[in-house]
Design brief:
InterPro entries: Rhodanese-like_dom, Rhodanese-like_dom_sf, YgaP-like_TM. It holds the Pfam family Rhodanese. Keywords: Membrane, Transmembrane, Transmembrane helix. This is Rhodanese-like domain-containing protein. By secondary structure, the protein is α/β, with parallel strands linked by helices. It folds into 2 domains: 123 residues, Rhodanese-like domain (Oxidized Rhodanese, domain 1); 53 residues, no CATH class. 53% of the residues lie in helices and 12% in strands. The chain is built from 10 helices and 7 strands. The strands form 2 sheets. A 5-stranded parallel β-sheet has the order 1-6-5-2-4. Strands 3-7 form a two-stranded antiparallel ribbon. Helix 4 links the parallel strand 5 and strand 6. It is elongated.
Length: 189
């Protein structure tokens, strides 16, 4: 990734003040977006990105910045958009976490657990449960090994399969707006 592919909070804030129309594409789950998001950002969840490629092509005519919680999902989205022929995107370094830490304003809604927190809870419960069960049934330790391998893969590849599965749960779909309508509004800006 080169310097053109990354946007810092300061650079994004300055670009929004000087250029005005910067498309902020938030690729977190609708529930995470509902909890907190940057004003004017459009929520198109990473797992639904391909479904909105035609609308994205129309909306991404100027500067486009991809945002997630910390940057990992935004980089994955950037790879998918580039593979689909949509170039010229930037990933906000540090994601929404960096935005909030900088003191920049956010729109807050109903508080929801982040996908990362959900993964930690489920992985922890699976390990605890399988270790406890292994006291009576030794093969249960394979669940612990499977979770450990999955977490290792997620750390090495920055691609969490458990997170992708959890993103599909109704809890994480709640509060979903209409990405097509939001992208249409972005095209008119």
């Amino acid at each position: 990734m080169n310097a053109v592919d990354v946007a810092t909070v300061r650079a994004l804030t300055a670009a929004r003040e000087t250029e005005g129309a910067v498309l902020l594409l938030d690729v977190r789950t609708p529930a995470e977006f509902e909890s907190a998001h940057i004003d004017g950002s459009v929520n198109v969840p990473l797992d639904r990105l391909e479904a909105y490629l035609p609308q994205l092509a129309g909306a991404m005519t100027g500067r486009s910045v991809l945002v997630c919680q910390s940057g990992g999902r935004a980089r994955t989205a950037q790879d998918k958009l580039t593979a689909a022929g949509l170039r010229g995107t930037a990933v906000m370094t540090g994601g929404l976490n960096a935005w909030i830490t900088s003191g920049a304003p956010v729109n807050r809604g109903r508080r929801r657990w982040s996908l990362e927190r959900q993964v930690r809870l489920v992985a922890g419960l699976l390990v605890l449960g399988s270790v406890t069960l292994s006291l009576w049934w030794a093969p249960a330790l394979f669940v612990t090994a499977f979770v450990g391998a999955g977490l290792g893969y997620a750390g090495a590849s920055d691609n969490c399969m458990m997170g992708m599965l959890l993103a599909r749960l109704p809890y994480n779909r709640a509060g979903a707006g209409d990405p097509a309508a939001a992208l249409a509004r972005a095209c008119r800006r």
